Amino acid sequence: MSVIEAQDSSEMSQPSTSEEKKHPTRLEGYTQLTSAALKRKSSTEGSLAPPSKQTKLWEMRRVSQASVEKVVLQFVVQGLHPPHIVQQQGFIDLVQHLQPNTNVMTRNTVINKVTKASVEMKRKLKAALSEIEYIATTTDCWTAHRRRFIGVTAHWFNPQTMQRSCAALACKQLKGSHTFSALAGALNDIHTEFNIREKIIRTTTDNGSNFLKAFRVYGQTDENNNPEPVGEWDGEEDDGGQNDDCDEEEESIEGVEFVDAGALLDEDDYLEYQLPKHHRCACHLLNLVSTVDASKAEVNPLYKRVSRFTPVELSFLAEYAKTMSPVAKALDVLQGETSVQMGWLVPTITLLRTKLQQLHVGSKFCQPLIAALISGLEKRFGEMLVDPELIAAAILVPKFKTCWTSDKNILKLGLDYIRSHLDCQAENHISEGSQSSEEEDFFSSLKKTGPLETSQQLDAYLGCPGDTVEHLSLNMYQ
Length: 478
Description:
Layout: H1 3-13, H2 17-48, H3 57-60, H4 65-78, H5 89-98, H6 107-129, E1 135-144, E2 147-157, E3 164-174, H7 180-193, E4 200-205, H8 209-218, H9 243-249, H10 261-265, E5 278-280, H11 282-295, H12 301-307, H13 313-334, H14 345-362, H15 367-385, H16 388-395, H17 408-433, H18 438-442, H19 454-463, H20 470-476
Helix pairs in contact: 7-8, 11-13, 11-15, 13-14, 14-15, 16-17, 19-20
Region (Disordered): 1-29, 221-252
InterPro entries: RNaseH-like_sf
Protein name: Transposase
């Protein structure tokens, strides 16, 4: 390389003095231009898509301490967990992992909050029940972990919407054996606590011997001053799982009645408690028909031999399934949770009896079974099927009205019951709405009840093509 070339090369690799002075200015301008472009680009992209950085769970939604305590309380109550679960380290770690820096309630705090919520819920329930005129209750008693408990649920119709509502009134432990008097006392206390004792039209229980005796002794009598009817099966196979107390409640053994002298001094002539009218659980009764009563078919030797799996067992099983199918379906109907009312009972049992009678004609193997089932239905439901109140309840279900039976005498019982109560309501309405003399009160039943007389109201309802409960209020109270 020549000296000139080396010099030229050296000059190309080193900037001149004037270029050195211009470079900082050009660099500053270039930086300003690029930064402005980047700002415009970021603002445009920010309006179209979220930033690429992933937000952590606790940075995205911060949960308050109060909301954490509310959820923990719901977890304890709905899961029936013991209060001390909140003190277990695993539970504390779980809550704090999901929501760091959160304090977990102590056991005493849980108990206090549950107690406070229970008092508030009971206050609201009492206020709601105070607006209801007629209430039905169901009650049950059971033993768990060598402790005895009683549960009571209230059911009623909303007078505005005609929709059925229900609420649990109590689930409490019974001290000592659940004798008939202990059950009566517990029920009386619960009814009194909620101020509904005079509003309960009927209480439904299973067929436990102590429940039956409690209502037979302390329950209301019917219109003819008759107490709770005593069936031939009481205290036998259908004791509702209360055999552990039956010995205490035997009224007589081999014709000899034993009397406790101490108890005799405190005798109150069975006026201490007041229980409402009693109704036996239809599902429990029907279950007894399909088990206890059905087993009596084995008295027939041919049926018993065929039912123990002979070469024709397949034919027998097919016919057996066909026979028991309507019984199972009737149980499903009566165990409904939302739409089933007392008015469903008589039509369901009536239709079940009809289906069994129809099967009896063409039955080859199961005639003894069908006869036993029909006999069981008659024994356990016979009085209910001719009860005017229950028949009236069936007629007042728009789904059934009078189409569930062709027996005019049965329908007449229910229709007469409805008319009599409509007349009573009309008289009460007139007497409450006017200030009149005793003479006018005596002849008040001759007055008109409104736009339609009671018989016309009933006829209008029966002739209405609708089959929903709303038509009941529209036609009966217009």
